[in-house]
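P.,

For your records, the input lines for the assembly:
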Amino acid sequence: MDTTILEMREITKRFPGVKALDKVSLSVKRGEIHTLVGENGAGKSTLMKVLSGVYGHTTYEGDVLYQGKLQQIDNIRDSEALGIIIIHQELALVPQMSIAENIFLGNERANYGVMDWDEVRSKAQQLLKKVGLDESVDTLITNCGVGKQQLVEIAKALSKDVKLLILDEPTASLNEKDSDALMNLLLEFKSQGITSILISHKLNEIAKVADSVTIIRDGATIETIDCSTHQVSEERIIKGMVGRELTERYPKRDCEIGQEAFSLKDWTVHHSQHKDLKVVNNISLNVNKGEVVGIAGLMGAGRTELAMSAFGRSYGQNISGTAYIDGEEVDLSTIEKAMNHGLAYVTEDRKECGLLLEQSIEKNISLANLAGISQRGVIDQMQEMTIAKSYQRKINIKCANTQQDVGNLSGGNQQKVVLSKWLFTEPKILMLDEPTRGIDVGAKYEIYGIINELAEQGKAVIVISSEMPELLGICDRIYVINEGRLVGEMPAAEASQEKIMRAIMNSGDKQ
Amino acid sequence: MSSEQMGTVSAKGAGESATSQNYWGYFSRHLRDYGILLAFVAILIFFQIVTDGILLKPLNVTNLILQNSYIVIMALGMLMVIVLGHIDLSVGSVAGFIGALAAVLMVNFEMHYVPATAICLAAGGLIGAAQGFWVAYYKIPAFIVTLAGMLIFRGLSLAILEGQSVGPFPVEFQKLSSGFIGDFFSIKKFHMTSMLFGAVVALVLAYMQFKTRANQEKHDFVEEPYLVFVARMIFMSGAILYFSYLVSSYRGLPNVALILFALIALFTFGTQQTTLGRRVYAVGGNLKAAHLSGIKTERITFYVFVVVGMLAALAGLVFAARLNTATPKAGLGMELDVIAACFIGGAAVKGGVGKIIGAVIGALVMGVMNNGMSIMGVGIDWQQVIKGSVLLLAVWFDVYSKSKQ
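Structure tokens returned:
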């Protein structure tokens, strides 16, 4: 029998305007644990979505060979019929259903449509034993921690007779003990002949379980390392992950860095739903006038949570720590207070949390500062229009007119509208969360220009970004955050992608 | 820049450079606004023909206003609730309860009608506050809170009326619904004051529109083609003058029409020109974005429910005054007509979109259909079938025109 269970050949997947995968190949041997590494947005998840049928076989180019046969996988049902099961980073469990119900969701044990509860419960019991979860099958998912939920997902996969198990960063939100147990479980599956593909950022995990490592960068395969013949070194993986040429350019900024504008001391935030989970753990940081400070980290590291909790406690609970503006302690307990102190937070999710998509550019720009366009509660629409037009010109929002609905603009122009909204509040400190996500290169350059201009006006700017070259290109100083902790601080001049990655990975090893 | 210049040129050139493409583009962008208006006019013409001209007889037009005034009043509040992304099922029951309260105060306790009316409006506001409190601060879905309210106030009406009809109301109070504004001229069979009032309203509205447009031109932004603007002015003034002429030919403007005009003007201004109105649309359009922009979303929700409670109370008073008696069944099912009016008028189910004038026209569409079909002798059974179909059709058109954009 062939030793290769899966071969993906020259997969190319295009999204409007972007090539997410460019001739990516992946070959997985039967019974191995194959790890897939790469930066955020490198294309790992897209590749796995191709494999699991989220993107049908007509939507990409290239071939998928599984069990030696060419496959045409069009939906998740197809891939599951082949024994390919994917467990996504965001778990897909129904919180208000029991463990047993979740395990057999969509795959119900029933006779003529009537549930066979005895079968469901006894089978679920067996599966829980297999994954080593000591919990009643009637426990509701909402009462399980993330680690247990992860195990339920795996039990669910096992219930479908899995041959190839794909785990997308399964340990990202797990503590050390749960992560360890999960890795041991994978090793046990391996001994039972189940093949796994593991997407991970954690070097210690890779070292522990991986038989091969494939590195993906910018939608292309860099290399596959066979761990039985080669030593997997941190250097090699990091270099492979980040070693891209700096193709984007960053406009130069020339301004004096002034006194401290804003700082947080011992800032701790608990998860908004799980009150025992610290998403921000005792972080202290500061930003000066005229300075652009970057916050680097992986997805889920706690960067957004840090910024939002500082912005009027718009995220999390049980927040502790002190905030200072211009050296004085300030109360940022509501969004209104934060705004009055000159804080602005530009959200990472502009459609969900930033814009009124069905309303005009004008109305979006004035939203956070209605007082600025009204007298005694009555809006001066001419003034509103004038202000919108001035921002349209100043930061080059491309639109037919300012009464156009924001929903019809491109991503880059939408981002400029959100920025205009916050610029109109005349903030002293701006927190920009992924300010260039999902926008094209030209618009990115313009946004960098705006950031520079703000710094030159003496404003303090904090940029959260998952694109390390961007942080290196526009920041004066970079903080690195991992798993809610501050794990590194470096002047941009001394920073490199390797250094940032190392800070992240080393911190993961230490725990 | 080029598109702006084109816009101004086509506006100033009065059609010289305005191609048919231009008009088509403008109308397709405003399909939702004009669709309902055209539908209303079509329905008017249809019933005018099939009723042999009875529909627009002065007496019938006056009746139309009296019959639908309370629906329109409640629709103003309901629109704001719907824009906010909620629904209020209790307005009919609240209106009925307030009517009952008014009867108990004025008839049983023989209270003077002025303090009694004030107490009733305040009670409406309190009821709204109580419901808004649960919706805004405890995040209980408005559907549930107001469903509870619907049952509670239906029950309370029965309780305070002790299952009886209570009436009649003092004559002065009846004037709220059955009275007409006084006439300062003595022309036979023509109510000159009402006609003049209509003319003044038409003039003021036209003046304001021209002023806005001039201002837009000054700031180099005009979207509406000039001919469309002129046509709209002529249509609007013509409609107001014709309406004034009709009511003046009977007994003049009903008092309640005056209240309606004032409320429509106030709420149109409130929703379009004030920061409070803007915040309502923002909360309904994107709750998270509104919250992160520093808007106190809970407080806005609370205020809107207070307002809708007061409007329901006013509607209840108007309805009671019109029947001249308070019955335990008053207001039954009214909330459905009010909600239908808002959706026919272009409000979006998921919130954030909707106009006061749309809700008013929506209520009139329902009213004209009720009235027209009754004149035609269509039974109440088929009336409901037809009204239901129209509601579905209107919302389908809304969804369709949006997907086309």
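Two observations worth noting. Confidence is low (pLDDT under 50) at residues 1-18 of chain B. Chain B is about 75% helix and 0% strand.

Regards
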